[in-house]
Write a structure and sequence with these properties.
Blueprint: E1 2-8, H1 11-16, E2 20-25, H2 31-49, E3 65-68, E4 71-72, E5 85-89
Parallel strand pairs: 1-5
Antiparallel strand pairs: 1-2, 3-4, 3-5
Length: 95
């Protein structure tokens, strides 16, 4: 297991209310279930104080643009190493 620094941007940050966190994961795809768990736990805490909050969406690898140590990574099986910095960005959209 590698301890990584995870940074979230765009929709990921807005929906999870997490801007950065540390996670332990072996490969890139392992991040998403861990992020969803952490986001759900944070929602449960905040929902107790504000029952009008909407539960966060569950994110998957296909929902993200992923960078590891500043390099774009499109392989969800990519192995992670201690100290890696992983960025999750929502794909750009607009019109």
């Amino acid at each position: 297991m590698a301890t990584i620094d995870l940074r979230l941007f765009g929709v990921f940050r807005m929906d999870t209310h997490i801007s950065e966190t540390k996670l332990e994961a072996e490969k890139l795809a392992d991040i998403f279930p861990l992020l969803n768990e952490k986001s759900q736990a944070l929602y449960q805490e905040k929902h107790a104080a504000d029952p009008t909050l909407t539960p966060p969406a569950a994110f998957t690898f296909k929902d993200a643009l992923v960078y590891i140590n500043g390099e774009r990574c499109a392989k969800k099986g990519a192995k992670l190493h201690d100290g890696d910095e992983v960025w999750l960005l929502s794909p750009a959209s607009g019109g």
